Amino acid sequence: MTRTDLPDRRAPASDNAEPKKRRSFCQAVTRAAFRSLVCILAIGWVFFAVDNPRASADPSATVSGDQVRVVTEFVESYCRDCHNADDAVGGLDLETTPIGQASWDDATGQWSAWENIYKRVASRQMPPADAYRPDNDEYVVATQTLAGVLDGVAESKQTLTPSDSMRRLTRTEYQNSVRDLLDIEIDATRWIPKDESSHGFDNITVGELSPALMSRYLTAAEKISRIAVARPTGTPMGLTVRLPADLTQEHHLPGLPLGTRGGTNIRHTFAESGVYEIAVRLTRDRDEMVEGLYRPHDLDVLVDRHRHHRFHIQPPENGKDFTHVDTNLKVRVPITAGPHDIAVTFVSQGESLREIKRQPFDAAYNRHRHPRQQPALFEVSMVGPLNDTQSDPNKQLVAPEPTGPVDTPSRQRIFTVRPDDDSLASQVAAAETIFAKLLRHAYRREIGPDDLAVPMKFFRDAVQTTVTTSESATVSHGSNSTADDRFEFGIQRGIAAILVNPHFLFRIERPAETAGLHRVSDTELASRLSYFLYASLPDEGLLDLAASNQLSDAAVLDEQVRRMLDDPRSDSLVTNFAAQWLYLKNLDGVKPDLRRFPDFDENLRRAFRTETESLFRHIKEHGESVLGLIDSDFTYLNERLAVHYEIPGVVGSHFRRVDLSPDSNRGGLLRHGSILAVTSYSTRTSPTIRGNWVLENLVGTPPPPPPPDVPALKEKQSLTDASFRQRLAAHRENPACASCHALIDPVGFSLDHYDAVGRYRRFDADDTPVDSSGTLPDGTEVTGVKDLEASLTRHPEMFVTCLVEKMLTYALGRGLDHRDAAAVRRIVSESAQDDYRFSSIVRNIVASRPFQSRYHPPKDPS
């Protein structure tokens, strides 16, 4: 068949049109017989691949003549009119090098090109909607056959995308690792900068350790080791927590006692016992007047939910001078070392002034970001421990055990043994036992004498050095240090050394001696598994199995995955993986124009995040199909979010599951305020951003970035009164924009019934009726989010493939390419047998070749 024999593919043709007589290769064989042939080929290939893992060094030898014929006929019928030697639309020429003559060497780029073709055809994005298109049966046959070809090539090549052998812990991984190593909660954001993201996740590009960053880690290690050992030193430490400016504090906030409103609860680990001063500042407006202080209010300070002090706040008599209103909002509290909840909150008065709804475009009323009807907290600071004179000049407060440490959770974790006596030999023996246990956990492997040498050197230096007057404050609360003081100070110094050691800060996989595909060791597999599911260190169970080389056993490994998914630490898949995949971490940067959306605040921002995390957590914990993320018939709401969504009957600040009626405009991810807000501008929705988000994060076929010479959307003078859809259509007049926008915009417009803060609407901001209709890349006509969801669930493998790609990227800490595609298809196929349950996807990822193997490319001979 020559190109001139083919009908015009650029115009759609109906089923009874003349060109349809020769429209497909399926007329050579009946569709049923053809599908049977493909199934036989596919089944035969599966057994061939399993029985012959290195069957052929030549990838072309694995491609059968029948497979070549099927793919070639499809390309001749539907692809070559645009992708030929003369046109090569998108830089793709399928005429010069057909699949039967393809070179699968990475240098030619043809393997990558055919994987991209497969993805575009499987997602029904190609041929384009305005071209001559195959029917569903033809799509299925072609994609199954092409997948068989590509899987055969991948099996024969025995390769994967190379990855780095050393990767620094991300800030989140560092924080979680410290938590599990020392049993203390820290806020790593106080010391460690934010990690850069690549491929959608922040665990991809981490590698280098600059001197400035190393200095940050040194500071963190000193602070953390002091908190963990919790020895009295008499050196004060401070913490200030500033509340978001747009946090509305008119009502009860989650986590605080009933009968209160506003405020904050701070979970903090105190380094040592003593008296701490807690100081409170109230929010002020631009004129330095305390907002909302029109009558007296009571403010409670609570320690571990028990009220310690109540302030009575009075407005100034003249109503103007607020200088000293919060000057004396300070209280000194005896606190023991270890973790405590410090809460500061207002006593609810029951009958508060009605909050006047902020009106859009009222510049005079909205001159303050969030005008308040009642006072609110600006910041809470804590400093201590204070010495006797600082803490209580009148000797009325008694500090809790100021001369000795409290048995905190971290001390229980660290001091598993004590010296038998005060001799140096006894102290060294105890220290070696303590460090040996910590090092095995911290370095995520079995340790040797060289590993012990570094922390033991710091320990010996600390216990043997003559303590000077200045050093005594660090070692002991008094002027004379005891042997026990020096022992614990030495342990503290050793822990600090562990926390800055490369074996803790980096995940290290030993390079293989030869090039090729190699299984990772059991120890490396344990780390891969724990940082995938926990974003933290392997626990003792994993390390024990790795040490005995049992973890690589498929049954043992699968049992561990099930166990770990039931562990609370696997919630990092919600708060870390899902938060990055779904852009929830971008919510902090969502700042809608308050003149258009005056009721948006931090409370709503937090509620958005909680709703989406709660749905993902439900799917994970209940082992349900991940398709529930798309078409869920329930959601999680508190009163604030329910009011925003106009759903009645939800009272209180706590979140709870709410079952939805069939006609509800809420449910799956595409109806969540979080997703709708992060894909909007501050003043309006963006069908382009929303459509691109869906294609990238739910379908897995993101369009290429726009050409650099194409300007952003601007209103033409003649279209200033047109609808936004018309203005965007004018933007597509640029040929450089048309092809991508044809894919993106219909998807985005299907979500246009939701405004920039996720509220359902029937009219646009200019009172134009919302038009959410469009034609998807596969030719499906949609009107609204319900039709879009139906399209996604009608071909569930597309969404699941995208999810698997995202999760595998996160699990491996590297980007994927054509060399990983066959493994992704296998994970999806095996998960389909269990209805795409979340646990099945995770287990199949862990069992996959990319997760358990590493590819070492040949050395460059030059």
UniProtKB/TrEMBL annotation:
The chain crosses the membrane at residues 32-50. Residues 521-647 form the DUF1592 domain. Residues 778-851 form the DUF1585 domain. Residues 79-130 form the Cytochrome C Planctomycete-type domain. The keyword DNA repair does not apply. Residues 1-20, 390-411 are annotated as: Disordered. Residues 167-229 form the DUF1587 domain. Residues 666-762 form the DUF1588 domain. Residues 1-12 have a biased composition (Basic and acidic residues). It comes from the Bacteria. Residues 431-509 form the DUF1595 domain. Keywords: Membrane, Transmembrane, Transmembrane helix. This is Planctomycete cytochrome C. The lineage of its organism: Bacteria, Pseudomonadati, Planctomycetota, Planctomycetia, Planctomycetales.
